[in-house]
């Protein structure tokens, strides 16, 4: 399975007449085979150690306030995938993430269910989530993804869900120079496979701190990139803006015959 990174933007995306919504409504056509399960890595679930959700039926988490009533009436109650989630936890533990655990009650936050509501509206594919550790760096999250590479060969669709530029305190109605510079830098790095620079984005990217005052909405990209495995190639599948937010999305295509991740014995 290819691995995806998507910019989920505002919770209001289902109601917004913008290009990103149209992209999500057609996204399923980019997935070659119906997945056995979907693993969502959202910028809206953070824990001290890696956690996977093992609920049997996903409740919809409306993790926002001050929006119109009709948004709170939307639900995406896809089945969970507890067995696949436990397989993911074991892969993480085998790779050195010894404290990886399970959350049997966690539902789908809006970074997960909003894009899925648009892309897979039937809600018939089992879904589970993996948490982030934003107190850890980008390289850590790349390794987190690498541990999960075997899932891509087992019919699991992995989607990192963040927003390519994400500064809520500097929201603007137009594209800022500092946002465009970051977005163009990321595109160039991914298309030309300068992945080492991406794992050091806080030091390498122009205006990194201004675009991501906190890293939570960029780290899903690192997990997705890692999960695609060594030698993966990147393609931009959508590029648009919603004010100062880049809604860029990418697909990472695993290299044919690429080896699995090296299992690390030390605890990360």
Automatic annotation (TrEMBL):
The keyword Nuclease does not apply. It comes from Selaginella moellendorffii. PANTHER family: 4,5-DOPA DIOXYGENASE EXTRADIOL-LIKE PROTEIN (PTHR30096:SF0). Belongs to the DODA-type extradiol aromatic ring-opening dioxygenase family. GO terms for molecular function: ferrous iron binding; oxidoreductase activity, acting on single donors with incorporation of molecular oxygen, incorporation of two atoms of oxygen; zinc ion binding. Keywords: Dioxygenase, Metal-binding, Oxidoreductase, Zinc. Its cofactor is Zn(2+). This is Extradiol ring-cleavage dioxygenase class III enzyme subunit B domain-containing protein. It comes from the Eukaryota. The keyword Ion transport does not apply.
């Amino acid at each position: 399975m290819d691995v995806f990174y998507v910019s989920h933007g505002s919770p209001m995306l289902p109601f917004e007449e913008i290009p990103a919504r149209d992209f999500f409504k057609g996204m399923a056509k980019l997935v070659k085979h119906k997945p056995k399960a979907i693993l969502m890595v959202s910028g809206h679930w953070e824990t001290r150690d890696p956690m996977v959700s093992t609920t049997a039926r996903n409740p919809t988490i409306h993790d926002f306030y001050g929006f119109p009533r009709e948004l709170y009436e939307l639900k995406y109650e896809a089945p969970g995938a507890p067995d696949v989630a436990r397989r993911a936890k074991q892969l993480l533990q085998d790779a050195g993430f010894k404290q990886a655990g399970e959350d049997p009650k966690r539902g789908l936050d809006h970074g997960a269910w909003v894009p899925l509501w648009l892309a897979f509206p039937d809600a018939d594919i089992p879904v589970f989530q993996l948490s982030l550790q934003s107190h850890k760096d980008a390289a850590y999250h790349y390794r987190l993804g690498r541990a999960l590479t075997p899932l891509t060969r087992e019919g699991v669709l992995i989607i990192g869900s963040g927003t390519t530029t994400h500064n809520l305190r500097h929201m603007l109605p137009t594209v800022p120079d500092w946002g465009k510079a970051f977005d163009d830098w990321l595109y160039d790095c991914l298309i030309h496979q300068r992945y080492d620079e991406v794992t050091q984005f806080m030091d390498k990217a122009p205006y990194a701190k201004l675009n991501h005052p906190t890293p939570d909405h960029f780290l899903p990209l690192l997990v997705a990139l890692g999960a695609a495995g060594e030698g993966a190639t990147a393609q931009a599948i959508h590029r648009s803006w919603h004010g100062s937010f880049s809604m860029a999305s990418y697909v990472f295509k695993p290299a044919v015959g690429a080896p699995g991740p090296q299992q690390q014995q030390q605890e990360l």
